[in-house]
Amino acid sequence: MIRLSYVLRDAFQSMRRNLLVVTGAMIAVFISLFFAFFAVVGNEFIRINTLLWQEGEQVIVFLHDSNEGISVQDHQALLVEVQEWPEVESARYVDQAEAYQEFLILFEDSPSILEVADQTDVPASIRVKLADLDAYRDVEIRLDGNPAVRRVVSQGETIERLSSFIDALNVVAIALVVLLGVAAVVLISNTIRLAIYARRDEISVMRLVGASNWFIRVPFLTEGILEGVIGSTLGVGVVILLWTFVSGSVDIPMFSFAIETVFFVRWGLAFVLFGALAGLVGSSLGLRRFLKV
Questions:
Q1: What is the C-alpha separation between 10 and 204, in angstroms, rounded?
Q2: Is there a contact between 36 and 271 (Cβ–Cβ < 8 Å)?
Q3: Residues 2-47: pLDDT tens digits?
Q4: pTM listed for this prediction
Q5: 177 shares its domain with 48
Q6: What is the total count of domains within the chain?
Q7: What SS3 state is found at 52?
């Protein structure tokens, strides 16, 4: 029976002896799984906001007010017109008072903004829910040039750009996982090879005194697994720290950065296990080729 304390101590001592090569192997695992995990988080971000966009009011039409020669009757006339468009499932009018109350709730944690704004600074708007999500551009074109319209805001184009970015990131992440994953396995294999070479005399003595094959192999396998686990944990941890910082400091209207903790836990564990598997494969290759026991 091999004691766990002996295995871990032996593995860490071996890693310390070949620190430069070990660091290179862990960096390869770190970089590949960092980009891969970031792509997974990005996909979840797009999924959440796409669902929010589909379920909510997809287009907000901000309106000019009486100071700009536009009356409430003009607002209502535009509302009736928009409600009749085939691209629109429903539309509702939000006057300045209601919009200002929303503004107070939205910026309740920013007193400096609330101090310099009053109800007249918040425009009335028409909130549109689309019958066909792909028709948001048609609605924007219809509204363009209308004298009552101040500005039209929609998530559609932004979500499309983000989706394109995430698609490109997925390709990069997959390529990095394959290329750097192979590099990590090779580096870990070479690390084990160096460790075996450095301890060749000790291994010979262990054979002479009757040590079993697994007694010799297990510390080297553990070393490879540790390298994979440390590299993958760093990759996952950095992504989580970056996302926590972004979600706490960036506020983009109509977008949610809230991703459930269970998502990070589930996928984080999966990536750490993948790193451990890469370490196990690398160390197994090193053992099979350079330790004939």
A1: 16
A2: yes
A3: 566 666 777 777 777 777 778 888 888 888 888 888 888 888 887 8
A4: 0.65
A5: yes
A6: 2
A7: helix
Distance from C-alpha of 268 to C-alpha of 266, rounded to nearest angstrom: 6
- CB contact at 8 A, 70 and 147: yes
Q: Which two tokens stand for residue 113?
A: 């903004």
Task: Give CA torsion, residues 39, 157, 54, 64, to 10 deg.
Answer: 140
Name the token pair of 204: 């010979």
pLDDT single digits (tens) 151-175: 888 877 777 777 777 778 778 778 8
Q: Residue 125 is part of which domain span?
A: 59-154
CA distance between the termini of the chain: 18
**Residue keyed to tokens 């939000």:** 94
Q: Report the CATH number at residue 90.
A: 3.30.70.3040
Q: Which of 110, 128, 154 is the last residue of a domain?
A: 154
Nearest to 42 by CA among 270, 228, 255: 255
The residue among 108, 128, 154 that closes a domain is: 154
